[in-house]
Specification:
Blueprint: H1 12-37, H2 41-67, H3 81-109, H4 120-145, H5 148-177, H6 184-211, H7 218-229, E1 236-245, E2 248-257, H8 263-280, E3 284-293
Parallel strand pairs: 2-3
Antiparallel strand pairs: 1-2
């Protein structure tokens, strides 16, 4: 058995976060060099966004590692909230990056400069393909593992692909338009900043919701409710609260049973309810069952 507080063996979530970190290191270096040599501010802005991605990927990797620790006496509910904190960190980094890129884009629009080099389009095309593949891969792992932080990381990769696509369009317009159209590259960077900001706000809302213990998705709650109601001798589910913690859920449920049932039998029934819930939803980390007397004709509260 793994000791309390110890990190479990490396799993798919940690592996995906680590891969994302390595990819972002490579993408940042490639885009920065290509942008500086190829006279493309949109590509330099994209590199700046990727540099923030590095910190975001590091935050995700750290959050997933911490969240994977077993509960301790000091933290009896585990470390799952570390994933939400990591997701919020990624979101804040996106917002900071979008502001910096927007300010620099406006400056570049007002400053005459050389047109981008044509070969920068090939660099961006490769970046878009790699980032789209990474986004799909990380999203699949996030869904399988139920990881909030990895879902944010997948969105981050998709955001990077979108900004690179915007840069591609801007450079293409600047090259096709010829003299006088050089600023199209900078306008593309400004649009990219808006996309980054939008994704940052979306990710921040999700992370904050998890940190504030918003109730889990309706399908998860309904599945848990039905599992409890199917247990023999359960007359009704009076109350049900399900909150997310990283890749798992904590359940607080009020179950109604016959008022004449002995304390011993009620205890046994509560154990059956816990088992049924965990069997139906393996991501459940813990269940607190409150036994209530069933009153015929009295509708249970939600």
């Amino acid at each position: 058995m793994t000791a309390p507080g110890a990190v479990r063996p490396v799993n798919a979530a940690i592996g995906a976060a680590r891969l994302g970190l390595l990819v972002n290191v490579g993408m940042t270096a490639v885009k920065l060099v290509a942008g500086l040599v190829g006279h493309s501010y949109a590509l330099v802005a994209d590199a700046a966004e990727s540099a923030f991605d590095l910190f975001g990927s590091l935050a995700v990797w750290t959050g997933v590692r911490i969240a994977d620790r077993n509960a301790t006496e000091e933290y009896p509910f585990g470390f799952g909230k570390a994933e939400a904190l990591a997701g919020a960190s990624v979101a804040l980094l996106l917002l900071i990056a979008s502001l910096g890129i927007a300010v620099a884009s406006v400056h570049e629009i007002r400053t005459p400069h050389h047109a981008p080099a044509p070969w920068t389009l090939a660099v961006l095309a490769a970046v878009i393909i790699i980032k789209q593949l990474m986004s799909g891969f990380v999203q699949r792992v996030a869904r399988r593992e139920g990881s909030t932080a990895l879902a944010a990381e997948a969105q981050h990769h998709r955001s990077d692909a979108l900004t690179s696509g915007t840069a591609f369009i801007g450079i293409a317009v600047a090259l096709a338009g010829g003299p006088g159209w050089e600023s199209a590259d900078d306008w593309a960077a400004l649009v990219a900043a808006a996309i980054i900001a939008w994704n940052g706000v979306s990710l921040l809302r999700t992370a904050v919701a998890d940190l504030m213990d918003r109730i889990a998705a309706p399908d998860v709650v309904q599945g848990i409710r039905q599992a409890a109601e199917r247990v023999e001798d359960v007359r009704a589910v009076e109350k049900l609260a399900v909150r997310r913690a990283g890749r798992g859920y904590w359940v607080d449920i009020h179950v109604q049973a016959d008022a004449v049932m002995s304390l011993e039998l009620a205890h046994v029934l509560s154990g059956k309810v816990k088992g049924a819930i965990r069997a139906s939803t393996p991501q459940v980390l813990g269940v607190l069952v409150h036994m209530e007397p069933h009153v015929p004709g009295h509708a249970p509260s939600s």
